[in-house]
Design a protein that fits this description.
15 helices, alpha/beta, 38% helix, five-stranded parallel sheet, 18% strand, binds nicotinamide-adenine-dinucleotide, single chain
Protein backbone atom coordinates (compact mmCIF):
# COMPACT_ATOMS: atom_id res chain seq x y z
CA UNK A 1 0.00 0.00 0.00
CA UNK A 2 1.30 3.50 -0.86
CA UNK A 3 2.66 5.54 2.02
CA UNK A 4 1.09 8.87 1.05
CA UNK A 5 2.70 10.77 3.93
CA UNK A 6 6.16 9.69 2.76
CA UNK A 7 5.44 10.89 -0.79
CA UNK A 8 4.13 14.19 0.58
CA UNK A 9 7.13 14.65 2.91
CA UNK A 10 9.43 14.45 -0.13
CA UNK A 11 7.54 17.13 -2.10
CA UNK A 12 8.85 20.74 -1.94
CA UNK A 13 5.89 21.85 0.23
CA UNK A 14 6.17 18.73 2.38
CA UNK A 15 9.90 19.31 2.98
CA UNK A 16 9.18 22.83 4.23
CA UNK A 17 6.39 21.68 6.56
CA UNK A 18 8.42 18.73 7.85
CA UNK A 19 11.30 21.09 8.74
CA UNK A 20 9.13 23.86 10.26
CA UNK A 21 6.82 21.61 12.28
CA UNK A 22 9.42 18.98 13.23
CA UNK A 23 7.35 16.21 11.61
CA UNK A 24 8.81 12.74 10.88
CA UNK A 25 11.01 12.80 7.79
CA UNK A 26 11.13 9.27 6.33
CA UNK A 27 14.39 8.89 4.35
CA UNK A 28 14.58 7.11 1.02
CA UNK A 29 16.17 3.73 1.84
CA UNK A 30 18.70 2.25 -0.56
CA UNK A 31 17.79 -1.33 -1.45
CA UNK A 32 19.66 -4.13 -3.16
CA UNK A 33 19.52 -4.66 -6.90
CA UNK A 34 21.20 -7.64 -8.56
CA UNK A 35 24.89 -7.04 -9.04
CA UNK A 36 25.05 -4.14 -6.60
CA UNK A 37 28.26 -4.36 -4.52
CA UNK A 38 28.03 -4.95 -0.77
CA UNK A 39 29.73 -1.62 -0.11
CA UNK A 40 29.84 1.51 -2.23
CA UNK A 41 32.23 3.71 -0.32
CA UNK A 42 34.97 3.92 2.25
CA UNK A 43 34.82 2.02 5.50
CA UNK A 44 36.56 2.83 8.73
CA UNK A 45 37.36 -0.10 10.99
CA UNK A 46 38.84 -0.13 14.45
CA UNK A 47 39.27 -2.39 17.45
CA UNK A 48 39.48 -2.22 21.21
CA UNK A 49 42.74 -3.59 22.64
CA UNK A 50 42.74 -7.40 22.77
CA UNK A 51 39.96 -7.66 20.17
CA UNK A 52 40.24 -10.96 18.33
CA UNK A 53 38.00 -10.48 15.29
CA UNK A 54 39.60 -7.37 13.78
CA UNK A 55 42.08 -9.18 11.51
CA UNK A 56 39.29 -11.20 9.96
CA UNK A 57 37.16 -8.07 9.56
CA UNK A 58 39.96 -6.17 7.81
CA UNK A 59 40.57 -9.10 5.46
CA UNK A 60 36.85 -9.25 4.61
CA UNK A 61 36.61 -5.49 4.06
CA UNK A 62 39.67 -5.62 1.79
CA UNK A 63 37.97 -8.45 -0.11
CA UNK A 64 34.94 -6.24 -0.58
CA UNK A 65 37.20 -3.57 -2.07
CA UNK A 66 36.44 -1.06 0.67
CA UNK A 67 39.09 1.62 1.09
CA UNK A 68 39.88 2.43 4.71
CA UNK A 69 40.55 6.18 4.90
CA UNK A 70 38.94 9.26 6.38
CA UNK A 71 35.96 10.41 4.29
CA UNK A 72 32.21 10.22 4.36
CA UNK A 73 31.82 6.62 5.36
CA UNK A 74 29.60 3.91 3.90
CA UNK A 75 30.25 1.93 7.09
CA UNK A 76 31.93 2.11 10.48
CA UNK A 77 32.96 -1.28 11.84
CA UNK A 78 34.37 -1.72 15.33
CA UNK A 79 35.74 -4.85 16.97
CA UNK A 80 34.65 -4.71 20.62
CA UNK A 81 35.32 -8.40 21.30
CA UNK A 82 38.26 -7.48 23.52
CA UNK A 83 36.22 -5.29 25.88
CA UNK A 84 36.13 -7.22 29.16
CA UNK A 85 35.68 -4.46 31.68
CA UNK A 86 33.51 -1.30 31.85
CA UNK A 87 36.61 0.91 31.85
CA UNK A 88 37.45 -0.34 28.36
CA UNK A 89 34.11 0.85 26.95
CA UNK A 90 35.73 4.23 26.34
CA UNK A 91 37.28 2.68 23.22
CA UNK A 92 33.78 2.81 21.67
CA UNK A 93 33.50 6.51 22.37
CA UNK A 94 36.99 7.20 21.09
CA UNK A 95 36.40 5.37 17.81
CA UNK A 96 32.89 6.58 17.00
CA UNK A 97 32.80 10.10 18.44
CA UNK A 98 35.02 11.78 15.80
CA UNK A 99 33.46 9.99 12.81
CA UNK A 100 29.81 9.20 13.51
CA UNK A 101 28.64 12.41 11.89
CA UNK A 102 30.53 11.47 8.71
CA UNK A 103 28.32 8.43 8.09
CA UNK A 104 26.62 8.55 4.68
CA UNK A 105 22.87 8.28 4.14
CA UNK A 106 21.98 4.56 4.39
CA UNK A 107 25.40 4.04 6.06
CA UNK A 108 26.10 1.10 8.34
CA UNK A 109 27.42 0.87 11.90
CA UNK A 110 28.49 -2.62 12.94
CA UNK A 111 29.98 -3.50 16.30
CA UNK A 112 31.38 -6.96 16.95
CA UNK A 113 31.03 -8.12 20.52
CA UNK A 114 30.82 -11.35 22.49
CA UNK A 115 28.16 -13.02 24.66
CA UNK A 116 28.07 -11.61 28.19
CA UNK A 117 29.47 -14.40 30.42
CA UNK A 118 29.37 -15.08 34.16
CA UNK A 119 32.36 -12.81 34.92
CA UNK A 120 30.58 -9.65 36.18
CA UNK A 121 33.02 -7.15 34.65
CA UNK A 122 32.88 -8.86 31.24
CA UNK A 123 29.08 -9.26 31.41
CA UNK A 124 28.57 -5.61 32.34
CA UNK A 125 30.87 -4.41 29.60
CA UNK A 126 29.42 -6.58 26.82
CA UNK A 127 25.83 -5.82 27.84
CA UNK A 128 26.78 -2.13 27.77
CA UNK A 129 27.82 -2.56 24.14
CA UNK A 130 24.23 -3.56 23.33
CA UNK A 131 22.81 -0.38 24.86
CA UNK A 132 25.40 1.65 22.97
CA UNK A 133 24.53 0.09 19.61
CA UNK A 134 20.78 0.37 20.08
CA UNK A 135 21.18 4.07 20.91
CA UNK A 136 23.43 4.69 17.91
CA UNK A 137 20.66 3.14 15.78
CA UNK A 138 18.28 5.76 17.11
CA UNK A 139 20.74 8.64 16.61
CA UNK A 140 21.97 8.01 13.06
CA UNK A 141 19.90 9.62 10.34
CA UNK A 142 18.87 9.29 6.71
CA UNK A 143 18.41 5.56 6.55
CA UNK A 144 21.62 4.59 8.36
CA UNK A 145 21.44 1.52 10.63
CA UNK A 146 23.39 0.03 13.56
CA UNK A 147 23.80 -3.61 14.62
CA UNK A 148 25.68 -5.68 17.18
CA UNK A 149 27.09 -9.03 16.05
CA UNK A 150 28.03 -11.24 19.00
CA UNK A 151 30.73 -13.73 18.14
CA UNK A 152 31.31 -16.88 20.14
CA UNK A 153 35.03 -17.70 20.36
CA UNK A 154 36.08 -19.17 17.02
CA UNK A 155 33.04 -17.77 15.17
CA UNK A 156 35.02 -15.13 13.31
CA UNK A 157 35.48 -17.55 10.41
CA UNK A 158 31.68 -18.04 10.22
CA UNK A 159 30.64 -14.37 10.23
CA UNK A 160 31.11 -13.41 6.59
CA UNK A 161 27.56 -13.97 5.33
CA UNK A 162 26.19 -12.01 8.29
CA UNK A 163 28.56 -9.08 7.77
CA UNK A 164 27.84 -9.02 4.05
CA UNK A 165 24.11 -8.88 4.74
CA UNK A 166 24.34 -6.20 7.40
CA UNK A 167 26.79 -4.03 5.42
CA UNK A 168 24.71 -4.21 2.24
CA UNK A 169 21.49 -2.59 1.04
CA UNK A 170 19.79 -5.98 1.59
CA UNK A 171 19.38 -5.06 5.27
CA UNK A 172 17.74 -1.67 4.52
CA UNK A 173 14.95 -2.08 7.11
CA UNK A 174 16.95 -3.97 9.78
CA UNK A 175 18.34 -1.86 12.60
CA UNK A 176 19.14 -2.09 16.30
CA UNK A 177 19.57 -5.87 16.13
CA UNK A 178 21.75 -8.16 18.21
CA UNK A 179 22.75 -11.27 16.25
CA UNK A 180 24.82 -14.10 17.69
CA UNK A 181 27.12 -16.15 15.49
CA UNK A 182 28.48 -19.54 16.60
CA UNK A 183 31.52 -21.33 15.23
CA UNK A 184 30.52 -23.42 12.22
CA UNK A 185 31.97 -25.09 9.19
CA UNK A 186 31.10 -22.74 6.39
CA UNK A 187 31.33 -23.78 2.74
CA UNK A 188 33.58 -21.84 0.36
CA UNK A 189 31.29 -19.45 -1.48
CA UNK A 190 32.24 -18.69 -5.06
CA UNK A 191 28.96 -17.04 -6.12
CA UNK A 192 27.47 -14.70 -3.51
CA UNK A 193 24.72 -13.69 -5.97
CA UNK A 194 23.34 -17.26 -6.16
CA UNK A 195 24.07 -18.87 -2.78
CA UNK A 196 21.08 -21.25 -3.08
CA UNK A 197 22.02 -22.66 -6.48
CA UNK A 198 20.77 -26.26 -6.75
CA UNK A 199 18.71 -26.09 -3.56
CA UNK A 200 15.00 -26.71 -3.00
CA UNK A 201 12.97 -24.33 -0.83
CA UNK A 202 9.39 -24.48 0.46
CA UNK A 203 7.59 -21.19 1.15
CA UNK A 204 4.11 -21.32 2.71
CA UNK A 205 1.64 -18.50 2.09
CA UNK A 206 3.50 -17.70 -1.15
CA UNK A 207 0.55 -16.36 -3.18
CA UNK A 208 0.96 -12.76 -2.05
CA UNK A 209 2.56 -10.28 0.34
CA UNK A 210 5.68 -11.27 2.22
CA UNK A 211 5.50 -14.92 1.11
CA UNK A 212 5.48 -13.92 -2.56
CA UNK A 213 8.55 -11.72 -1.98
CA UNK A 214 10.34 -14.52 -0.12
CA UNK A 215 9.62 -16.99 -2.91
CA UNK A 216 10.90 -14.53 -5.54
CA UNK A 217 14.03 -13.70 -3.54
CA UNK A 218 14.96 -17.33 -2.89
CA UNK A 219 14.43 -18.04 -6.61
CA UNK A 220 16.65 -15.06 -7.47
CA UNK A 221 19.30 -16.62 -5.22
CA UNK A 222 19.16 -19.86 -7.21
CA UNK A 223 16.65 -22.05 -5.36
CA UNK A 224 13.89 -24.09 -6.96
CA UNK A 225 10.93 -22.87 -4.92
CA UNK A 226 7.83 -24.87 -4.01
CA UNK A 227 5.19 -22.18 -3.49
CA UNK A 228 2.39 -23.29 -1.16
CA UNK A 229 -0.93 -21.59 -0.42
CA UNK A 230 -4.58 -22.42 0.15
CA UNK A 231 -6.65 -23.71 -2.80
CA UNK A 232 -8.73 -20.50 -2.77
CA UNK A 233 -5.56 -18.59 -3.72
CA UNK A 234 -4.79 -21.11 -6.49
CA UNK A 235 -4.75 -18.66 -9.43
CA UNK A 236 -2.46 -16.09 -7.84
CA UNK A 237 -0.30 -18.90 -6.48
CA UNK A 238 0.11 -20.37 -9.96
CA UNK A 239 0.98 -16.94 -11.34
CA UNK A 240 3.71 -16.46 -8.69
CA UNK A 241 5.13 -19.94 -9.25
CA UNK A 242 5.21 -19.44 -13.03
CA UNK A 243 6.84 -16.05 -12.76
CA UNK A 244 9.72 -17.32 -10.61
CA UNK A 245 10.13 -20.70 -12.32
CA UNK A 246 8.86 -22.55 -9.25
CA UNK A 247 6.18 -25.11 -8.50
CA UNK A 248 2.74 -24.44 -7.00
CA UNK A 249 1.38 -26.64 -4.22
CA UNK A 250 -2.21 -25.99 -3.16
CA UNK A 251 -2.62 -27.00 0.46
CA UNK A 252 -4.23 -25.70 3.62
CA UNK A 253 -1.44 -26.14 6.18
CA UNK A 254 -3.98 -26.79 8.94
CA UNK A 255 -5.54 -29.78 7.15
CA UNK A 256 -5.02 -33.04 9.04
CA UNK A 257 -3.15 -34.62 6.13
CA UNK A 258 -1.06 -31.50 5.28
CA UNK A 259 2.22 -32.54 6.99
CA UNK A 260 2.14 -35.94 5.28
CA UNK A 261 1.18 -34.47 1.88
CA UNK A 262 3.97 -31.91 2.07
CA UNK A 263 6.55 -34.48 3.19
CA UNK A 264 5.53 -36.80 0.35
CA UNK A 265 5.70 -33.95 -2.18
CA UNK A 266 9.22 -33.13 -0.97
CA UNK A 267 10.43 -36.69 -0.44
CA UNK A 268 13.38 -36.22 -2.82
CA UNK A 269 14.80 -33.69 -0.39
CA UNK A 270 14.36 -30.12 0.79
CA UNK A 271 16.98 -27.62 1.96
CA UNK A 272 15.04 -24.56 3.09
CA UNK A 273 11.63 -24.39 4.80
CA UNK A 274 10.02 -20.99 5.32
CA UNK A 275 6.89 -21.02 7.48
CA UNK A 276 5.42 -17.74 6.28
CA UNK A 277 1.65 -18.42 6.06
CA UNK A 278 -0.10 -16.50 8.80
CA UNK A 279 -3.44 -14.94 9.67
CA UNK A 280 -4.89 -12.40 12.10
CA UNK A 281 -8.35 -12.52 13.71
CA UNK A 282 -8.13 -9.40 15.88
CA UNK A 283 -10.55 -8.84 18.76
CA UNK A 284 -10.18 -8.05 22.44
CA UNK A 285 -10.03 -11.18 24.56
CA UNK A 286 -13.51 -10.92 26.10
CA UNK A 287 -15.11 -10.64 22.66
CA UNK A 288 -12.97 -13.19 20.85
CA UNK A 289 -14.74 -16.32 19.62
CA UNK A 290 -13.16 -19.70 20.17
CA UNK A 291 -12.98 -20.12 16.39
CA UNK A 292 -10.90 -16.91 16.14
CA UNK A 293 -8.56 -18.11 18.86
CA UNK A 294 -8.19 -21.59 17.38
CA UNK A 295 -7.66 -20.50 13.77
CA UNK A 296 -4.80 -18.13 14.59
CA UNK A 297 -2.99 -20.54 16.91
CA UNK A 298 -3.37 -23.35 14.42
CA UNK A 299 -2.22 -21.55 11.25
CA UNK A 300 0.58 -19.52 12.84
CA UNK A 301 2.04 -21.96 15.36
CA UNK A 302 0.70 -25.51 15.52
CA UNK A 303 0.73 -26.22 11.77
CA UNK A 304 4.34 -25.04 11.20
CA UNK A 305 5.45 -27.20 14.17
CA UNK A 306 3.69 -30.25 12.72
CA UNK A 307 5.12 -29.66 9.23
CA UNK A 308 8.73 -29.28 10.46
CA UNK A 309 8.35 -32.49 12.49
CA UNK A 310 7.01 -34.38 9.47
CA UNK A 311 9.86 -33.12 7.25
CA UNK A 312 12.47 -34.09 9.84
CA UNK A 313 10.95 -37.48 10.66
CA UNK A 314 10.49 -38.43 7.01
CA UNK A 315 14.12 -37.49 6.32
CA UNK A 316 13.03 -35.02 3.62
CA UNK A 317 14.77 -32.10 5.36
CA UNK A 318 18.42 -32.58 4.47
CA UNK A 319 21.34 -32.26 6.89
CA UNK A 320 22.54 -28.67 6.74
CA UNK A 321 18.96 -27.56 6.07
CA UNK A 322 17.38 -24.29 7.10
CA UNK A 323 14.06 -23.70 8.90
CA UNK A 324 12.85 -20.11 9.12
CA UNK A 325 9.70 -19.07 10.96
CA UNK A 326 7.78 -15.81 10.73
CA UNK A 327 7.27 -14.30 14.16
CA UNK A 328 6.25 -10.66 14.68
CA UNK A 329 7.18 -7.77 16.94
CA UNK A 330 3.66 -8.28 18.33
CA UNK A 331 4.92 -11.60 19.69
CA UNK A 332 7.63 -9.67 21.54
CA UNK A 333 5.72 -6.55 22.66
CA UNK A 334 2.13 -7.82 22.89
CA UNK A 335 -0.74 -5.80 21.46
CA UNK A 336 -4.28 -4.98 22.55
CA UNK A 337 -6.77 -6.90 20.42
CA UNK A 338 -4.19 -9.49 19.40
CA UNK A 339 -3.90 -11.94 22.29
CA UNK A 340 -4.30 -14.86 19.89
CA UNK A 341 -1.85 -13.49 17.32
CA UNK A 342 0.76 -12.39 19.91
CA UNK A 343 0.55 -15.79 21.63
CA UNK A 344 1.06 -17.57 18.32
CA UNK A 345 4.01 -15.40 17.31
CA UNK A 346 5.68 -15.60 20.73
CA UNK A 347 5.18 -19.35 20.42
CA UNK A 348 7.09 -19.27 17.12
CA UNK A 349 10.03 -17.74 19.00
CA UNK A 350 9.95 -20.48 21.65
CA UNK A 351 9.66 -23.17 19.00
CA UNK A 352 12.58 -21.68 17.05
CA UNK A 353 14.93 -21.73 20.02
CA UNK A 354 13.98 -25.26 21.08
CA UNK A 355 14.21 -26.70 17.57
CA UNK A 356 17.54 -24.96 16.97
CA UNK A 357 19.00 -26.78 19.98
CA UNK A 358 17.71 -30.18 18.83
CA UNK A 359 18.31 -29.94 15.07
CA UNK A 360 21.76 -28.37 15.43
CA UNK A 361 23.21 -31.89 15.72
CA UNK A 362 22.33 -32.43 12.05
CA UNK A 363 23.68 -29.04 10.97
CA UNK A 364 20.14 -27.73 10.51
CA UNK A 365 19.70 -24.11 11.61
CA UNK A 366 16.37 -22.77 12.87
CA UNK A 367 15.73 -19.03 13.06
CA UNK A 368 12.82 -16.62 13.18
CA UNK A 369 12.28 -13.31 11.47
CA UNK A 370 10.07 -10.87 13.36
CA UNK A 371 8.69 -8.21 11.03
CA UNK A 372 7.44 -4.90 12.33
CA UNK A 373 5.15 -2.84 10.13
CA UNK A 374 5.43 -4.14 6.57
CA UNK A 375 3.31 -2.72 3.73
CA UNK A 376 1.06 -5.65 2.75
CA UNK A 377 -2.65 -6.49 2.52
CA UNK A 378 -2.49 -7.53 6.18
CA UNK A 379 -1.44 -4.02 7.29
CA UNK A 380 -3.60 -2.28 4.66
CA UNK A 381 -6.62 -3.66 6.55
CA UNK A 382 -5.63 -1.80 9.76
CA UNK A 383 -7.66 1.24 10.87
CA UNK A 384 -6.07 4.46 9.49
CA UNK A 385 -4.73 5.91 12.76
CA UNK A 386 -3.24 2.63 13.98
CA UNK A 387 -1.70 2.12 10.55
CA UNK A 388 -0.12 5.59 10.52
CA UNK A 389 1.27 5.17 14.05
CA UNK A 390 2.62 1.71 13.18
CA UNK A 391 4.45 3.14 10.20
CA UNK A 392 6.16 6.02 11.98
CA UNK A 393 7.12 4.60 15.39
CA UNK A 394 10.53 3.34 14.34
CA UNK A 395 13.99 4.78 13.76
CA UNK A 396 13.45 4.91 9.97
CA UNK A 397 9.99 6.59 10.29
CA UNK A 398 8.40 4.37 7.64
CA UNK A 399 6.98 0.92 7.03
CA UNK A 400 9.14 -1.79 5.51
CA UNK A 401 8.52 -3.64 2.26
CA UNK A 402 7.98 -7.37 1.80
CA UNK A 403 11.39 -7.55 0.12
CA UNK A 404 13.05 -6.40 3.36
CA UNK A 405 11.73 -9.50 5.15
CA UNK A 406 12.60 -11.62 2.12
CA UNK A 407 16.23 -10.46 2.05
CA UNK A 408 16.57 -11.33 5.74
CA UNK A 409 15.12 -14.80 5.12
CA UNK A 410 17.51 -15.25 2.18
CA UNK A 411 20.52 -14.41 4.37
CA UNK A 412 19.42 -16.94 7.00
CA UNK A 413 18.74 -19.54 4.29
CA UNK A 414 22.22 -19.33 2.77
CA UNK A 415 24.64 -22.23 3.37
CA UNK A 416 27.23 -19.68 4.54
CA UNK A 417 24.93 -18.70 7.45
CA UNK A 418 25.61 -22.04 9.17
CA UNK A 419 26.77 -20.24 12.33
CA UNK A 420 23.49 -18.39 12.82
CA UNK A 421 20.88 -20.44 14.66
CA UNK A 422 18.25 -19.93 17.34
CA UNK A 423 18.14 -16.23 16.48
CA UNK A 424 15.15 -13.92 16.28
CA UNK A 425 15.93 -11.11 13.86
CA UNK A 426 13.54 -8.19 13.75
CA UNK A 427 12.86 -6.48 10.45
CA UNK A 428 11.18 -3.44 11.90
CA UNK A 429 13.31 -0.35 11.25
CA UNK A 430 14.10 -0.50 14.99
CA UNK A 431 10.48 -0.19 16.09
CA UNK A 432 9.84 1.34 19.49
CA UNK A 433 7.44 -1.54 20.21
CA UNK A 434 8.94 -4.37 22.21
CA UNK A 435 12.38 -2.80 22.07
P1 LIG B 1 -0.92 -11.86 3.89
O1 LIG B 1 -2.24 -11.99 4.57
O2 LIG B 1 -0.77 -10.80 2.85
O3 LIG B 1 -0.49 -13.26 3.23
C1 LIG B 1 -0.57 -14.48 3.96
C2 LIG B 1 -0.65 -15.65 3.00
O4 LIG B 1 -0.78 -16.84 3.79
C3 LIG B 1 -1.87 -15.57 2.09
O5 LIG B 1 -1.52 -15.81 0.74
C4 LIG B 1 -2.78 -16.66 2.64
O6 LIG B 1 -3.64 -17.24 1.66
C5 LIG B 1 -1.79 -17.66 3.19
N1 LIG B 1 -2.40 -18.54 4.17
C6 LIG B 1 -3.22 -18.18 5.20
N2 LIG B 1 -3.69 -19.27 5.84
C7 LIG B 1 -3.15 -20.36 5.21
C8 LIG B 1 -3.25 -21.75 5.40
N3 LIG B 1 -4.04 -22.26 6.36
N4 LIG B 1 -2.56 -22.57 4.58
C9 LIG B 1 -1.78 -22.07 3.60
N5 LIG B 1 -1.65 -20.74 3.35
C10 LIG B 1 -2.32 -19.89 4.15
O7 LIG B 1 0.14 -11.70 5.06
P2 LIG B 1 1.59 -11.00 5.06
O8 LIG B 1 1.43 -9.62 5.55
O9 LIG B 1 2.30 -11.23 3.78
O10 LIG B 1 2.28 -11.82 6.25
C11 LIG B 1 3.10 -12.96 6.03
C12 LIG B 1 3.64 -13.43 7.37
O11 LIG B 1 4.35 -12.37 8.01
C13 LIG B 1 2.55 -13.87 8.36
O12 LIG B 1 3.01 -14.97 9.11
C14 LIG B 1 2.39 -12.65 9.23
O13 LIG B 1 1.87 -12.98 10.51
C15 LIG B 1 3.82 -12.16 9.32
N6 LIG B 1 3.91 -10.74 9.68
C16 LIG B 1 3.45 -9.75 8.84
C17 LIG B 1 3.57 -8.42 9.23
C18 LIG B 1 3.12 -7.27 8.35
O14 LIG B 1 3.33 -6.12 8.74
N7 LIG B 1 2.56 -7.52 7.18
C19 LIG B 1 4.13 -8.11 10.45
C20 LIG B 1 4.57 -9.13 11.28
C21 LIG B 1 4.47 -10.43 10.87
Amino acid sequence: MADRYQSFARSPLGQTLVRRLGLPDPPRLQRHTPGRPVLEGPVLSGAAPAGWAGKQVDALLADLGAPNYPADYAALVFDATGIADPGQLRALYEFFHPVIRSLRPSGRVIVLGTEPRSDPAQAAAQQAVEGFVRSVGKEVRQGATAQLVRLAPGAETAMESTLRFLLSARSAYVSGQVISVDPATVPDVTDWEHPLHGQVALVTGAARGIGEAIAATLARDGARVVCLDIPAAGDTLAAVANRIGGVALQCDITAADAPQRIATHLQRGIDVVVHNAGITRDRTLGRMSDAEWDAVLDVNLAAPARITSALVESGALRSGGRVIGLASITGIAGNAGQTNYAASKAGVIGLTRAQAAVLGERGITVNAVAPGFIETEMTARMPLVIREVGRRLNSLAQGGRPVDVAETVAWLAAPASAGVTGQVVRVCGQSLLGA
